Predict the 3D structure of the following.
Amino acid sequence: VQLQASGGGLVQSGGSLRLSCAASGRSFNSYTVGWFRQAPGKERECVAAISWQSVRTYYSDSVKGRFTISRDNAKNTVWLQMNSLKPEDTAVYYCAADLLQFTEEATSYDYWGQGTQVTVSS
């Protein structure tokens, strides 16, 4: 599975962005997909994850109520809608796929996209 993350950019505080994660190579219908972010000098953290049938979702406390993860398996695409963005949301955002379990642990994920930069100005 190859993952392509896109949609990042520069936005003012309070603004919105929608990230997309498109899969190719094979269907990722059976995979949990997570969105992770890594800011300079910080560890990579999972901000959201969605199970393969969208039954389960996970949000970190830092984004709960502001970010929404969704997927369309027919389009092999997962989105992360980010609203009310804050400067502390500035990071490189990655999408990743996990075949075996629903988790927020980065070490469990099998496939990773290349990352897209999100910068939120104050």
